[in-house]
Write a structure and sequence with these properties.
Blueprint lengths: L2 E5 L5 E5 L6 H7 L19 E4 L1 H7 L4 H7 L9 E3 L12 E4 L7
Parallel strand pairs: 1-5
Antiparallel strand pairs: 1-2, 3-4, 3-5
């Protein structure tokens, strides 16, 4: 089972097991990562599951879709490695993925 590490804005670290084919957002919610809000439940319509993918992993998670890019344009604390965690699917290749959460999730 792949592991994902969430580093919250306050420095709290969660390294958790992730189910293959689930989203990084679903993984966060199942493991009580409090800074992932996910108001839309993964529908790519709210940008409240924003994460900053560690640079070493950014290419491996793949590119954002046009719909995701549109939502990212409205997000707070945007960085070049920002993604919506609901749009990143967990695969075995992402074992060890590291993401950071912003201080504010635009709610």
């Amino acid at each position: 089972m792949p592991k994902v590490t969430f580093i919250e804005h306050d420095g709290t670290v969660h390294t958790v097991d992730a189910e293959v084919d689930s989203s990084v957002m679903e993984t966060a919610l199942r493991n009580d990562v409090s800074s992932i809000v996910a108001e839309c439940g993964g529908g790519c319509t709210c940008a409240t599951c924003l994460v900053h993918v560690d640079e070493a992993w950014f290419e491996k998670v793949g590119p954002a879709s046009p719909e995701e890019e549109e939502m990212l344009d409205a997000a707070f604390e945007l960085k070049p490695t920002s993604r919506l965690s609901c749009q990143i699917r967990v695969t075995e290749a992402l074992d060890g993925l590291v993401v950071r959460t912003p201080a504010y999730q635009g709610r």
